[in-house]
Amino acid sequence: MKAATGRPTEPAVVRWGLTAIALSFLMCFLFVPLAAVFAQAFSEGLRAYWAAIVEPTALAALRLTAITALVAVPVNTLFGLAAAWAIARFEFPGRGVLITLIDLPFAVSPVVSGLIFVLMFGLHGLFGPWLVAHGIRIIFAVPGILLATLFVTVPFVARELIPVMQEQGSEEEQAALALGASGWQMFWRVTLPNIRWALLYGVVLLNARAIGEFGAVSIVSGHIRGQTNTAPLHVEILYNEYNFAAAFSVASVLALMALVTLVAKSIIGRRRT
To answer: At what angle do helices 192-212 and 244-272 cross, to 10 degrees?
Structure first.
């Protein structure tokens, strides 16, 4: 912590002590486990590692994970933009309810979220008999995975944009409209440049959650190999079968995705400040 003059106010021993505690915590609970994942992944050699990655069910799981993220990211980005705009710019009945609903996925366990979809769309659920009668399958199929992922990733973009848009106000947008700009020109040339880093930050977090989601997807997927297994579920199956090297190989791919996300998040966070 620095005083108004920019000089530290705490004794050096306190600053160095806190820094050492933080670094020790990160070393024990982040770097060491991450290094262990890669060490286990390459424990049987590069050839075994590559074979585990390109194995057909592993490729299917990675493909489904990518498809899920490709659906969840644009859908929840558009929703987050619309919801943040409505909440930050307008007063309307139900505004508080909308804010609460956006935060709901943060408050509800992902497992409970998955069970909610089973109760709604399962064989004996609220809409199950109608879906079966029309040949539509949601639970234990890809649509269920997409719905569960969309639900758990709802808050990320909206929660990043709402405080930024509230802080910036609407004066610049109103001035653009007064000068004759259309709604699209106002958004593209005034609103978007002001929120771009918050938007990118939210999208990065959303993408990370979509790739790594386990609890809700596990409930609705059915764990069908090559069909409804995402990468995290495939890792779990391999681990339960004592195929540790293959499990850690696929897990290392997820870890690499997480590291790329972390770097992107760090760069965007630095640009925001």
So the answer is: 170
What burial letters (b/e) apply to 63-95, b meaning 16+ CB within 10 Å? ebbeebbebbbebbbebbbebbbebbeeeeeee
pLDDT digits (tens, 9 = 90+) for 79-111: 999 999 999 988 888 888 999 999 999 888 999
Q: How far apart are CA 26 and CA 251, in angstroms?
A: 20
- Of 197, 237, 236, 212, the closest CA to residue 69 belongs to 212
Alpha-carbon distance 110 to 230, whole Å?
Answer: 15
Cα–Cα distance measured from residue 234 to residue 225, given in angstroms and rounded to the nearest whole number: 8
- State the Cα torsion 32-38-42-43 to the nearest 10°: 30
What is the biggest distance separating any 2 CA atoms in the chain, rounded to whole angstroms?
Answer: 72
SS3 2: strand
- Integer Cα distance of 118 and 115 in angstroms: 5
Dist CA 95 CA 110 (whole Å): 25
What is the token pair recorded at 78?
């558009």
Whether the per-residue pLDDT at 25 is higher than 70: the answer is yes
Mean per-residue pLDDT of the chain: 88
